Amino acid sequence: MCTRRSFQRFLSETANQPVSNEEQAAAVLRQRCQVQSRRELDSCLEAKQRYQQVIRQFNDWMNG
Q1: pLDDT at 21
Q2: For 3-57, what is each residue's pLDDT tens digit?
Q3: Is residue 61 scored above 90 in pLDDT?
Q4: How far is 62 from 16, CA to CA, in rounded Å?
Q5: What is the pLDDT of residue 46?
Q6: Contact in structure between 61 and 54 (CB atoms under 8 Å)
Q7: How far, in Å, are 9, 29, 43, 54 from residue 57 at the CA level?
Q8: Distance from C-alpha of 27 to C-alpha of 2, rounded to nearest angstrom
Q9: Contact 25, 2 (CB under 8 A)
Q10: Mapping DSSP to helix (H, G, I), strand (E, B) and coil, where does residue 48 land?
Q11: Is residue 7 a contact partner of residue 29, using CB atoms and an 8 Å limit?
Q12: 19 and 11 in contact (C-beta within 8 Å)?
């Protein structure tokens, strides 16, 4: 997801900060999911639920 330009625009708009590449998108996503590494999404149920919420918000944003 972090490589997708549309996801980067979504994160930029919703985080009120510039997100223009994969590294910045990953940093915002880690912050939103409250993890240090995206690998934690596999082992932490709460983080996985936060990630799924971000994806739902992104899909809603895309379908505008």
Answers
A1: 98
A2: 999 999 999 999 999 999 999 999 999 999 999 998 999 999 999 999 999 999 9
A3: yes
A4: 17
A5: 96
A6: no
A7: 13, 12, 22, 5
A8: 9
A9: yes
A10: helix
A11: no
A12: yes
Phi, psi of 19 (to 5 degrees): -135, 105
> Who contacts 21 (Cβ-Cβ below 8 Å, separation ≥6)?
8
> Domain spans of the chain?
5-63
Does residue 64 surpass a pLDDT of 90?
no
Q: Residue 38 has what pLDDT?
A: 81
Instruction: Give the Cα separation of 62 and 41 in Å (integer).
Output: 23
Which one, of 49, 23, 24, lies nearest residue 34 by Cα? Answer: 49
| DSSP string across 22-39 | HHHHHHHHHHHHT-SSGG
CA angle, corner 25, sides to 11 and 5, nearest 5?
A: 70
